[in-house]
Amino acid sequence: QVQLIESGGGWVQTGGSLRLSCAASGSGFSGVDMGWFRQAPGKERQFVASIKRTGASTYYADSVKGRFTVSRDIAKNTLYLEMNNVQPEDTAVYYCAADPRGYRLDYWPRLDNIYYWGKGTLVTVSS
To answer: How many CA atoms lie within 13 A of 121 on its CB side?
Structure first.
């Protein structure tokens, strides 16, 4: 079992930066791949980024590639999302997710039964 709690959301100006964290508890952190999703008001949930359990491989949605960086600290049981040059269209609730099944990272945008989810943290980008 893995429990996930996101933090770090808030208000940020267009072009600014923000770092989200996802603290994991439970016995399974090292055995799960992890990712970030987001859901804007009135829209469907959208894949943002995923990372392998070792942290060696990452995969990004085209909309955030080059601006966002996903990483994980296994010793701290924490997942991060570094967000740079944020834009108003990045405004959303950001969710941390974890899955033990070892799918390829580029499958994550299509996964609809991910095992573990956090409750989300709101990011608002405004000028």
So the answer is: 19
pLDDT in tens, 67-116: 999 999 989 999 999 999 999 999 999 999 999 999 999 999 998 799 99
- pLDDT for 26 equals 82
Residues pairing with 10 in the sheet: 123
In this structure, are strands 116-117 and 78-83 parallel, antiparallel, or unpaired?
unpaired
DSSP-assigned states of every residue in 20-77: EEEEEEES-GGG-EEEEEEE-TTS--EEEEEE-TTS--EEE-TTTTTTEEEEEETTTT
Lowest mean pLDDT among 5-9, 24-28, 67-71, 83-87: 24-28
Contacts of residue 83, defined as CB under 8 A and 6 or more positions apart, other chains included, come to 12, 17, 18, 19, 20, 64, 67, 68, 90, 123
Residues 44, 105, 26, 114, Cα dihedral to 10°: 40
- Tell me how far apart the alpha carbons of residues 5 and 103 are, in angstroms, rounded to a whole number: 23
